[in-house]
Specification:
The complex is a heterotetramer, with one copy of chain A, two copies of chain B and one copy of chain C. Chain A is mainly alpha-helical. Chain A has one domain: Arp2/3 complex 21 kDa subunit ARPC3 (Orthogonal Bundle), CATH 1.10.1760.20. Chain A is built from nine helices and no strands. In chain A, helix 1 crosses helix 5, helix 3 packs across helix 5 and helix 4 packs antiparallel against helix 5. The two termini of chain A are about 25 Å apart. Helices cover about 40% and strands about 20% of the residues of chain B. The relative contact order of chain B is 0.15. In chain C, about 75% of the residues lie in helices and about 0% in strands. In chain C, helix 1 crosses helix 7. Chain C is globular. Classes of the chains: A mainly alpha, B alpha/beta, C mainly alpha. Chains A and C meet through helix 1, helix 2, helix 4 and helix 9 of A and helix 3, helix 6, helix 7, helix 9 and helix 10 of C. The complex binds adenosine-5'-triphosphate (2 copies) and magnesium ion (2 copies).
Chain lengths: ~240, ~280, ~270, ~280
C-alpha cells in the first residue's frame, strides 16, 4: 500500500504539480535510456509486467486490506528505467478505473518508481555482498527496505502538504471571516494532521504488508531464478 | 452401485450473461464408472466440471459429489478426487517435477515418509522417473500431461476428473495415457470423468457417454455404441461418430448391414468374417 | 477492479454515453474532476455525486455494480480521513465524497468507452513507448486474468489454498505469481513475435472518422459544463454556497425520477 | 514448380540446452502445396515453424522462405504469409474482431477502402459476420480459431503456416475448417504448412506429409498413403496410421488384401465393392 490512495483534490496543487514534473523528467530520462534498445521489443515486455502488476493489485490479501505491488520484482527484472515506464502505465490504467486519484498519478509513479529503483540496486548490492546463493534474502530484504523508504516518502508527502502556506488560497475565501486571521494555515482539509500519529498508524498498518510483500518477493524471485534464471542475472537497462 | 456424483437440473450464469442449464436428465457417475462428456465448443463441459469441483457455484439445482455439496464442503472430499484441468501449464506449480507431484499430499499434511512413498510409487507407475528432477517449464506437452496426471493420481483418489486430457498429445502418448487410466480404473476401482473432442478415443475409455448440447442441456446418455448410433442427436451436438461408426453407416447405405464395432480389431473381425463367409459360400457353390 | 466486467459494459451498451465520442467524454471527465478538486463544500460534492449516480442510471447498465466498482477508493479515503481526523464529520465527508465522485466519473467514462478509444485520444500527447505500452498492457491484462483464473483453479483443486493455513497459502501463492511471471515472459516473447509477424507497425485500433459533435456528444458536454459552472460560480461567489443544499436536493430528485423511469421502462 | 520454402540441415539450440537438428532430408514446400508435419511431442514441429517465421534464428544450416532468410528479412515477405500459432489467444491483438482481422492490412498501410473490402470478404467467407463486433476474449475456442484464421487469410497470402489448428475444436467446426482451407488452397493456389496430432484429418488436407522424429530429424516424406504404410517409421515418430489405415492393415493380416483408402467414402466403396462382387459371384455360381 505504498500506493497513494489519496483522493483527488485533497493534496495541494503545488505538490501535485511537483509530482507530475518530477515524473515527467524521470520518464523522459528513462525513455532516453531505453532508446538504445529496440522499442518494438520493449513494448511487449513492459506490457506484460505492467499487466502482471495490475492483475496482482486485483487479488486482495484477505485479512488485511493490502494488495501487493510487485514493484521491486519489476525493478529487479526490468531494471529501474524500464520499470519506471512500466509503473507509470500501471498508475495511468488503474486511475482510469477510479482506483486512485487521476491527479496524483505523478506522485504515485514517484513513490512506486522509487521502490523499483531502490529495490533493483539493493538487490544487486546484496547479491554482491552475500553471494549468489542468497537470492531469497537479497530480494526479500531489498523489498522490505524499498517499501520502508517509499512509505517514508509517502509520509513526507503528507507532511509537506501542510507546510506550504500558498495552498490556502482556494479555501480561505470560502470562509472569508475566518480566513482573515487564519491566513497561514495550510489546506483546510489537511490542517492539523498529526504527522507523528499518521506515521505511527501507517507503520503498524503497513508493517505486516511490508513483511508480506518481502516474503512474496523472495519466493517469486527464487521461483523465477530456478525456472528462468536468465531473466534475473543479467544487468538490465 | 454407489453414486459418486449426481447433478440435477443445475443452472449457472456467468457474470457476462452467458447462462447454462444442465437439464434434460440427471448426470450420474457411479463408483468405478468411466464417463465421457461430449458436446460442441462452448456447450458447458468445462463449466460442469468446475461445478463438480466447487470452483463455481450453481444458482439452481442440486449437485452432490461424494455425498457433499462441492460449493460448500469441497475441502472435505478433495483428498479423494484427482483433477487435471484443461490447461496443464498452470497446474504444474512447483519448479521441479518431484515437488510438483508431492504438492497435494504436502498441502493435505501427509507425513514425509508417506509422501515419499506415494510420490515414488506414482512416478514409477507412470514411467517418468527420468523427469523427476526436471523443471516442468521446459517439458513437452506430453510430458507435462503425464506429470499433471501423476499429481492427480498421487493420493489414490476414488474419482478422477479430467478436462480434455488428450489435446496436444501425440497418438502414442495418448494411447499410453488411455491404457494408464484404464489400469488405474481397474486396479483401484477409480471412477473417471473426462471431456474430449477426440471421438476415436471414446470407445477405448468410456463405459458411459453423456451428450451435452449448446446451452448445457444433457440430451443423451448411453454406451458409446448407443450414443454413436443416434445420428441426429450427434449432429445437434457437433459430434461425429468415430471413423469406424461412419464407415459402418456408409456400408449400410450400400446395402451391407453389419454389426457396428467401434474398435479396429472388432471391426476388422466383423468385415473379415463377412467376406470370408461369402468366399466360402461362393467356393462351396 | 473488475476489468473484465468493465470492458464488457463498455462494449455492450447503447446509451447516449456509449454513443458519444471518447474525446468529448474525456472533456466531460476533465470538467468534472476539476470541479471536484475545486470545491470543498460538502453538500455540493454530495450533489455532484448524486448527479453522477443519475448519469449512471442513464447508461442503462447495472447501477449498483457501477457504484460498487467506483466505491473501491472509498476504503482508502476512509483510512485517509481517519488519519487526518480532527473531529469534523463534514471534513471527513468531503474527503470521502471527493474520492467517490472522482472515481465514479472515471468509471462512468470507462464503462461506456472501449479502451482503445480512450487511448487514441490521449495518444498524441504521450511518447510512443507509453502509448503503445498502454495498448499492449491492457490486452495483456486479459491474457493474465485468464491465466490467473486457471492458476487459482489449479491451486484450489490441488489443495494449494486451505483455510487458516496462512503460511502455506502465502508460499503457494508466491509460487503461483512466479509461475504467472514466467509464463508471462513466454507470452510477452510470443506476443512480440506475433505482432511482428502480423505486420505490427504501431496501428492497433481503428480511427473514428467523423469529427462532428453529435447530439450524444453535446449532452455529455452540456452536463459537464453545467456542473463545472455551478462549482465555478460558488468558488467565485462564496455567498452563493448556501444554495448548495438546493442543488443537492435537485440532483436527488433527478436521481429518484430517473430511477423510477428506468424501473417502469424496463 | 516453384519452391516457396526450403530448410536444409538446420540446427537450433534453446538456451536451456535442448538442441534440435533438422537433418535427414530437405524440407521443401512448393507453390500451392499442402504440407502436413507429423511427429512426437517435443520433436520440434513448432520450433521448425518458428524458424520459418523468423521468430527464432538457426545456428547452422540454410533456411529460405519466399526467397529470403526469414531471420534477417522476414519483414520483406510477411505480407505474403498468413500465420496461426499454437496458442490462438496470443494471436488476437486488437480489442474487436473486425479490428483484429484488419490488423495486418492496416499495419501494411493499405488504403481504407481496400481494407474494408478485404476484411468484409474474409469475414463473409468464414461465416463469422455475427462475431464482427465481439470482444475476442469472450469467445469460445472454436470461434477464436476462426477469427485467427480470418486474420491470417485477409491479405490473400501465398503461404499459410498453421500450428495445430484443429486442437480444442469440435469435430463439426474442424470439418468446416478443413473445407475452408482446401477451398482457399484451390482458389488462390495458397500453399499450406500445418502441424497436427490428429491423424484422421491428414488424408483430408495433405498433399505431402513430413515425418519428424525426436530431435528434429526428418525421417520421412511422401503422400499420406505412402507415409502411413511405413509402419516402423511411424511408430518411431509416435504416429499412428489413421483408423482406416489400421483397419486395412488388420484386414490384410486376416488375408483380405484391399487397396488402402484413408477416407470413409473410399474405404466404404472398396469394402462394399469386394463384398458385392463376392455376393454376385456366389449368386452367379
Ligand atoms: N469466465 C467466463 N465468463 C463468461 N463466459 C464464459 C466464461 N467461461 C466460459 N464462458 C462461456 O460459457 C460457455 C460454456 O463454456 P465452457 O468453457 O464450459 O464450454 P466447453 O463445453 O468446455 O467448450 P470447449 O469445448 O470449447 O472447451 C461458453 O459460451 C463460454 O463462452
Ligand atoms: N522456449 C523454450 N525453451 C527451452 N526449450 C524449449 C522451448 N520451447 C521448446 N523447447 C523444447 O524444444 C523441443 C521442441 O519443442 P517444440 O515445441 O518445437 O515441439 P513440438 O514438436 O511442437 O511438440 P508438440 O507436439 O508438443 O507441440 C522440446 O524438447 C521442448 O521441450
Ligand atoms: Mg472446455
Ligand atoms: Mg508444437
Amino acid at each position: 500500500m505504498s500506493h497513494l490512495h489519496i483522493p483527488d483534490g485533497v493534496l495541494p496543487g503545488w505538490l501535485v504539480m511537483a509530482g507530475w514534473i518530477l515524473t515527467a523528467v524521470i520518464l523522459a530520462f528513462s525513455i532516453y535510456r531505453t532508446r538504445k534498445t529496440e522499442l518494438k521489443r520493449k513494448i511487449p515486455l513492459i506490457g506484460i509486467i505492467s499487466a502482471l502488476m495490475i492483475v496482482c493489485m486485483t487479488i486482495p490479501i484477505v485479512p488485511i486490506a493490502y494488495h501487493i505491488n510487485l514493484s521491486v520484482i519489476a525493478g529487479i527484472i526490468l531494471g529501474p528505467a524500464v520499470a519506471f515506464i512500466s509503473i507509470f502505465i500501471v498508475d495511468l490504467i488503474i486511475a482510469m478505473f477510479g482506483h486512485g486519484g487521476i491527479t496524483v498519478i505523478g506522485l504515485n509513479t514517484m513513490v512506486v518508481g522509487t521502490e523499483a529503483f531502490i529495490g533493483f540496486y539493493l538487490f544487486q548490492i546484496f547479491m554482491a555482498l552475500i553471494g549468489r546463493d542468497s537470492i531469497m534474502w537479497s530480494s526479500g530484504l531489498a523489498a522490505v527496505i524499498a517499501l520502508i523508504i517509499s512509505t517514508s516518502i509517502l509520509v513526507g508527502i503528507i507532511y509537506a502538504s501542510q507546510i506550504n502556506p500558498e495552498i490556502i488560497i482556494g479555501i480561505e475565501e470560502s470562509n472569508p471571516t475566518e480566513a482573515t486571521h487564519d491566513a497561514h494555515v495550510p489546506n483546510e482539509l489537511i490542517k492539523g494532521v498529526n504527522v507523528k500519529s499518521f506515521a505511527k498508524t501507517l507503520l503498524i498498518l503497513l508493517g505486516i504488508g511490508w513483511l508480506l510483500e518481502g516474503i512474496i518477493t523472495a519466493f517469486v524471485i527464487k521461483y523465477v531464478s530456478r525456472v528462468r534464471p536468465d531473466l534475473i542475472l543479467p544487468q538490465r537497462v | 452401485m454407489k453414486e459418486l456424483v449426481k447433478v440435477n437440473n443445475v443452472k449457472f450464469n456467468y457474470p457476462d450473461g452467458t447462462s447454462l442449464f444442465f437439464d434434460g436428465q440427471e448426470f450420474i457417475v457411479n463408483k468405478g464408472e468411466r464417463v465421457v462428456i461430449l458436446g460442441p465448443n462452448g456447450s458447458g463441459k468445462s463449466t460442469l466440471l468446475s461445478l463438480l469441483l466447487g470452483l463455481l457455484t450453481s444458482s439452481e439445482g442440486d449437485i452432490q459429489v461424494l455425498g457433499v455439496d462441492p460449493s460448500k464442503e469441497y475441502e472435505k472430499v478433495r483428498e479423494r478426487i484427482g483433477v487435471l484441468l484443461q490447461n496443464v501449464d498452470l497446474q504444474i506449480i512447483a519448479p521441479r517435477v518431484w515437488d510438483d507431484v508431492a504438492f497435494s499430499p504436502r498441502n493435505y499434511g501427509y507425513k514425509k515418509e508417506e509422501i515419499d512413498k506415494l510420490v515414488d510409487d506414482v512416478i514409477t507407475k507412470l514411467e517418468i522417473e527420468h523427469l523427476k528432477d526436471k523443471v516442468p517449464h521446459y517439458m513437452s506437452g506430453g510430458e507435462k500431461a503425464k506429470v499433471g496426471i501423476a499429481g492427480a493420481l498421487v493420493t489414490n483418489p476414488e474419482l478422477l476428473i479430467l478436462d480434455e486430457p488428450f489435446e496436444h498429445i501425440d497418438p502414442t502418448c495418448r494411447k499410453e495415457l488411455i491404457n494408464l487410466l484404464n489400469d488405474v480404473n481397474k486396479e483401484n476401482n477409480t471412477a473417471i470423468i473426462l471431456s474430449t473432442h477426440n471421438m476415436n478415443t471414446v470407445p477405448l475409455i468410456a463405459d458411459t457417454v453423456y451428450l451435452v448440447a449448446e446451452g448445457g442441456r444433457i440430451v443423451g446418455k448411453g454406451t458409446p455404441k448407443e450414443i454413436f448410433s443416434e445420428i441426429e442427436k450427434l449432429s445437434q451436438c457437433h459430434v461425429e461418430p468415430p471413423i469406424l461408426g461412419s464407415l459402418f453407416a456408409e456400408l449400410k447405405k450400400r446395402g451391407i448391414d453389419l454389426d457396428v464395432s467401434l474398435t479396429v480389431d472388432e471391426a476388422a473381425c466383423a468385415i473379415a468374417d463377412e467376406i470370408v463367409s461369402l468366399k466360402n459360400n461362393s467356393g462351396a457353390a | 477492479m473488475d476489468v473484465a466486467i468493465i470492458d464488457y459494459y463498455a462494449n455492450h451498451g447503447n446509451s447516449f454515453l456509449h454513443k458519444a465520442k471518447a474525446f468529448w467524454k474525456i472533456v466531460f471527465v476533465a470538467l468534472l474532476i476539476t470541479s471536484i478538486i475545486l470545491t470543498n463544500e460538502f453538500y455540493l460534492l454530495l450533489g455532484i455525486y448524486f448527479a453522477l449516480v443519475t448519469i449512471a442510471v442513464w447508461t442503462k447498465l447495472p447501477v449498483t455494480k457501477i457504484v460498487t466498482i467506483a466505491a473501491y477508493p472509498a476504503i482508502f479515503a476512509l483510512i485517509f480521513a481517519f488519519l487526518v481526523w480532527n473531529g469534523s464529520w463534514i471534513r471527513a465527508g468531503v474527503i470521502i465524497f471527493k474520492a467517490l465522485s472522482a472515481a465514479l466519473t472515471m468509471v462512468l467514462l470507462i464503462v461506456t468507452t472501449s479502451y482503445p478509444e480512450v487511448f487514441n485520444v490521449i495518444r498524441p500527447i504521450m511518447p510512443r513507448i507509453i502509448a503503445e505500452g498502454l495498448f499492449v498492457t491492457y490486452r495483456s491484462v486479459f491474457i493474465l486474468l485468464e491465466l490467473t483464473d486457471q492458476l487459482i483453479k489449479g491451486l484450489k483443486v490441488r489443495g494449494g489454498i486451505t483455510r487458516r493455513k496462512y503460511i502455506a497459502n502465502i508460499k503457494n501463492f508466491s509460487s503461483g505469481i512466479g509461475l504467472l511471471l514466467v509464463r508471462g515472459f513466454d507470452i510477452s516473447e510470443k506476443f512480440y513475435g506475433v505482432m511482428n509477424i502480423r505486420g505490427y507497425g504501431g496501428r492497433i485500433s481503428y480511427e473514428r472518422t467523423n469529427s462532428f459533435i453529435t447530439l450524444n456528444d453535446g449532452i455529455a458536454l452540456v452536463l459537464g459544463i453545467l456542473i463545472f459552472t455551478v462549482v465555478i460560480v460558488t468558488v467565485i461567489r462564496k455567498s452563493l454556497l448556501e444554495f448548495s443544499v438546493y442543488i443537492l436536493a435537485l440532483s436527488i430528485i433527478a436521481l429518484v425520477i430517473s430511477s423510477i423511469y428506468k424501473q417502469f421502462s424496463t
